[in-house]
Amino acid sequence: MRDLLVIFVVAVLVSFLIKTFLIRSFFIPSESMEMTLVKDDRIIVNQLVPEVTPLERGDVVVFKDPGGWLPARAEVQQPPLVAAFDWFLAFVGLSAPDSNDHLVKRLIGLPGDHVTCCNALGQMSVNGIPLDEPYAVLPAGDMKVSEVDFDEVVPEGSLWVMGDNRYNSKDSRYNGDTPLKGFVPIENVVGRAFVVSWPVSHWAWLGNYPDTFAGVDEAAEGGD
User: Fold this and answer.
1) Alpha-helix residue ranges (DSSP H) falling in the chain
2) Contact by Cβ (8 Å): 157, 186
3) Does residue 100 carry a pLDDT above 90?
4) Residues in CB range of 98: below 8 A, 6 or more apart
5) Are the beta carbons of 123 and 132 closer than 8 angstroms?
């Protein structure tokens, strides 16, 4: 019994350290990232991004609400035993009760990027480079990758993010009236989602489509 108890305690501590410093799980609370991510999917997030591994355009990022993006919600009261069990699962990283306090979007613009939409073909551009976005979901018959036009330069220390489900995502485009004008502070980023872990039928690696953003860095260095 003593050995089993030691093994259990060590396993819990290891799980806690992994969840705290390396990876953790989140569930998808909305349809804003369809069809890349479907509501109630579980994703695994690399928490070494951005502190150790740099952010890249096209990353699917999880971040804390910058303020005013999410509606206020009432705290759900649970029986003490259920609350204790949920706390334990969250402690070891098997549950994510704070998923509703975070958002999941695709990173489009890094600090200093000039993001605009839309050109004559309905495309968005970053630093003057039109993007071919295979992940973007549009209503049938629509060509524009955004129903609203925009022209923004991403401030230092911030990001421009958008949902893949372009006509059903409250992202940087629609939060211009919040204190940070729709931009997301890099310090709010929890990490980069890299795999769909559940359900098994949705299992997939989450890429950042480097071909889509090819040439954007060079255009930025050229002062576009």
Assistant:
1) 2-21, 80-91, 216-221
2) yes
3) no
4) 90
5) yes
What's the mean pLDDT when you consider all of the chain? Answer: 86
Q: Is this structure's pTM higher than 0.85?
A: no
How many C-alpha atoms does 33 have within 13 Å on its Cβ side? 26
Q: Is 105 a catalytic residue?
A: yes
Q: Given 19, 105, 144, 172, which residue is catalytic?
A: 105
Measured CA angle at 40 (ends 210, 92), to 5 deg: 90
Q: What is the pLDDT of residue 222?
A: 72
How many angstroms separate the Cα of 66 from the Cα of each of 62, 69, 175?
A: 12, 7, 10
- 43, pLDDT greater than 60: yes
* Per-residue pLDDT reduced to its tens digit, 188-211: 999 999 999 989 999 999 999 999
Q: Which two tokens stand for residue 53?
A: 């591994």
Instruction: Considering the candidates 25, 30, 32, 169, report the single residue annotated as catalytic.
Output: 32
